[in-house]
């Protein structure tokens, strides 16, 4: 039995301090563990060292969006379990887009186009408070120890020059954060959502797909994964450019600061080395 403390109780009437079972661990992400929670809910329990501000942002954004968009799972509560913060969500019965691509690689083009369409579909104005994309980028760049101060300063000036906007950006839009169900798609993991240029959000997905380190060690498997990933990347970008009229140069402009900000994330060393080479080449 686990002590569960309700911090906020918007849509449900449970009492503070109720004792409940966490249920089976069903998935693990970089920032959390995800447990079953009753029949039709899940508990996303965050790592202890994650800043509270990020968890609150995920809760607020998911809560606000789920009221407007079918694409976002219902949000029930912000809770505390065993000294860790968590969010209770509606359980989505589906598979991640990543699992679909890995198990049925012949579907890669169709899924890449689906990702582009979903990305375009969320890029709308919002009527609630959200962090600012450019400010968040600068904050993340300021925190990395892998860049010299003068490089950081040049990056801040570069960011200031980029054309801004006021649209909803997911901040971590990739095939592991899209669940495919019989009723349609659901987009999860809104912790890094902000408002800004939609091209910035596309550039982030682009940088993730181009530089993402392979999860496997064997070289033959690595090659296959790289091949599938490249096809996925090009299918996604081409389709997004086709439906929006945005061109490759516009996307590439944002890739430099996005790559620099990613140095502040929990990434494998090899990926950081590749990002640094890219930043170095672009800065020249
Ligand atoms: N509402 C949900 N219903 C069903 N499964 C879910 C739900 N939310 C998350 N999951 C499962 O848990 C996994 C991790 O969730 P999520 O992406 O939100 O966590 P995370 O720790 O932020 O991940 P990362 O930072 O690695 O992207 C998902 O890929 C999915 O398999
Ligand atoms: Mg995720």
List the SSEs and their pairings.
Elements: E1 2-9, E2 19-20, E3 25-28, E4 32-37, E5 41-46, H1 52-68, E6 75-81, E7 84-90, E8 95-96, H2 97-103, H3 108-122, H4 133-143, H5 149-161, E9 167-169, E10 178-181, E11 184-187, E12 194-196, H6 198-211, H7 219-244, H8 248-262, H9 269-283
Antiparallel strand pairs: 1-2, 1-6, 3-4, 4-5, 5-7, 6-7, 8-10, 9-12, 10-11
Helix pairs in contact: 3-7, 4-5, 4-8, 5-8, 6-7, 6-8, 8-9
Bound molecules: adenosine-5'-triphosphate and magnesium ion.
Q: Care to describe what's here?
A:
With 284 residues, the protein is of the alpha+beta class. It folds into two domains: 89 residues, Phosphorylase Kinase, domain 1; 189 residues, Aminoglycoside phosphotransferase (APH), C-terminal lobe (Aminoglycoside 3'-phosphotransferase, Chain: A, domain 2, Alpha-Beta Complex). Helix content is 47%, strand content 20%. It contains nine helices and twelve strands. Strands 2-1-6-7-5-4-3 form a seven-stranded antiparallel sheet, covered by helices on one side. Helix 3 packs across helix 7, helix 4 runs antiparallel to helix 5 and helix 4 packs across helix 8. The chain starts with a strand and ends with a helix. About 4% of the residues have low confidence.
């Amino acid at each position: 039995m686990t002590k569960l403390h309700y911090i906020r109780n918007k849509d449900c009437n449970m009492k503070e301090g109720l004792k409940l079972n966490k249920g089976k661990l069903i998935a693990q992400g970089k920032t959390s563990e995800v447990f079953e929670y009753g029949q039709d809910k899940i508990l996303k329990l965050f790592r202890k060292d994650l800043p509270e501000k990020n968890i609150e942002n995920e809760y607020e954004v998911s809560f606000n969006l789920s009221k407007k968009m079918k694409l976002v799972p219902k949000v029930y509560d912000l809770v505390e379990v065993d000294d860790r913060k968590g969010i209770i969500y509606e359980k989505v019965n589906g598979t991640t887009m990543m699992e679909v691509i890995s198990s049925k690689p012949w579907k890669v083009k169709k899924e890449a186009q689906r990702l582009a369409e979903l990305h375009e579909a969320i890029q709308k104005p919002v009527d609630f408070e959200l962090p600012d994309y450019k400010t968040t980028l600068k904050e993340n760049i300021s925190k990395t120890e892998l860049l010299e101060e003068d490089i950081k300063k040049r990056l801040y000036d570069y960011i200031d020059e980029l054309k801004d906007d006021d649209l909803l950006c997911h901040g971590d839009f990739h095939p592991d954060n899209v669940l495919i169900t019989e009723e349609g798609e659901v987009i999860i993991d809104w912790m890094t959502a902000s408002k800004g240029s939609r091209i910035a959000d596309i550039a982030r997905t682009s940088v993730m797909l181009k530089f993402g380190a392979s999860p496997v060690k064997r070289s033959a498997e690595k090659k296959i994964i790289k091949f599938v990933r490249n096809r996925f990347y090009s299918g996604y970008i081409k389709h997004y450019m086709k439906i929006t009229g945005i061109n490759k140069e516009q996307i590439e402009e944002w890739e430099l600061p996005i790559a620099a900000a990613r140095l502040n994330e929990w990434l494998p060393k090899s990926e950081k080395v590749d990002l640094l080479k890219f930043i170095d080449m672009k800065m020249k």
